[in-house]
C-alpha cells in the first residue's frame, strides 16, 4: 500500500463463498496490509478459523465475550472494515444496527470505511428487504462490490455470486488509498507492439506489460482517470481503468494521439517495436519464400507526443542493457520529456516477466535518483509521486 501500513478487519459470514475469503486475506497481506479476521458462528460451519489463523498469523475472533472490550478496540484500530462474503442476514442486520454477535458490534463501533461483498442466492438478493438494506447502507456511506451474475452454489443461475477476489481486493485497497491524483487524466501505454510479417509471424519487442499495468493500477487507486493503451499481453484486466487493446505501433500511435487532448500526463511504458516489415504479406509465406526481410522504422510515438506536449507531464522509459545514463538523458532531451525512467534489463530482478524492477529516474534538470530493487507497484507510485510534484510546481508557477 502506498503510505503507512493499513489495518483491515475482515468480516467473514456464513456463505459457501467463505473459503474465498482466505485468498482475500492473503492477497491483502501481499498488498502490505495487516489483516484481522472476525467470523460469525455460521461462517465457522463453512471454514475453520484455523485456516485464517494460519494465513494471517493472528487469532480469529468469533465470540462477543472473548474479551471485555474487543468489540470496541478492534474497530478503533481498523482503517477498513471489509465484509466478504456478506450474507443477506448480515446485510439486513447491519442496516438495522443489530449487534447480537461480535461482527455486529464491530460494525456499530467502526468509524472508518466499510466495504461489503454480498454473496447469496439470487432470489434472496432480489428480495425487497435485502435491496432496501443495501440502498440504506449505501446512503450511509457503505461501499458495495458485486455481487456478480453467474452460476450459484445451489445450481441456479443469477445475480448473487460474490464478486471476484481480485475485484474485492482492489476495492479494499482503493478505499484505503488517498485520492491525490483525482484531478489528473493519465494516459499510460504498456506491453509490446507487434508488426506482422505474414498472418502467422511477427516482429516484436520483449515486454510482459507488467510495469505499464502497475502504473495504470497505482494511478487508478490514487483517483486518476486512467486510460491504458496496451499491446498484446496476458495480464488480467484492471479495475477502474479504460483499456484500449492495440497491436501495431501505428495503432498505438493513433490511440495515444486520439486521447492526448484530454490527458494531463502521459506515461509511455510500452516497448514499441522499432521496426516493421516494409511490406507485410496477407498470406502465409513458405520458409523458402523468405531469405531477408526489408524493414521500415515504426513511428516514434513518444517523440510525436513530445512535439505536441503543451502543459502535459511526459514520462518515458529507457530499457537499456547496462546503466546507460547518457543514452537515457539523450532520449529525454530528444523526445522533450519531463522524466525518463531508466532500467537496466540485465540486472537481477529488473528484467522481463518479473514483478520487481530496479530503476534510475532522471528529470529535465539532470537530477538523478537511483532506487533499489522494488515491486513494480512501488516503482509506479514513485513515478506518480514525481509526476504530481512536477504538476504541482507548474500549477504554482502559473498562479504567481
Ligand atoms: N518509444 C515510442 N515509440 C517508438 C519507440 C519508443 O514511443 N517507436 C518510447 C518508449 O515507449 C519509451 C521511450 O520511447 O518510453 C524509449 O524507448 P526505447 O526503446 O528505450 O528507445 P528508442 O527511442 O526506441 O531508442 P533505441 O531503441 O535506439 O534505444
Description:
This protein has 13 helices and 21 strands. It has about 400 residues and is of the alpha/beta class. The protein has two domains: about 5-175, Rossmann fold; about 185-400, Rossmann fold (3-Layer(aba) Sandwich), CATH 3.40.50.10300. Helix 1 packs across helix 8 (about 165-175). The longest helix has 24 residues, at about 375-400. The protein is elongated. It starts with 6 loop residues before the first strand and ends with a helix. The mean pLDDT is about 95. Cytidine-5'-triphosphate binds near residues 249 and 274.
CATH architecture of the largest domain: 3-Layer(aba) Sandwich
Q: What does the main sheet amount to?
A: 8 strands, mixed
Point out poorly predicted stretches: none
If you compute it from the alpha carbons, what radius of gyration comes out, rounded to the nearest whole angstrom? 25 Å
Strand order of the largest sheet: 12-11-8-13-16-17-19-20
Q: Report the end-to-end length measured between terminal Cα atoms.
A: 35 Å
Features:
400 residues, alpha/beta, Rossmann fold, 2 domains, eight-stranded mixed beta sheet, five-stranded parallel beta sheet, 13 helices, 21 strands, 34% helix, 24% strand, binds cytidine-5'-triphosphate
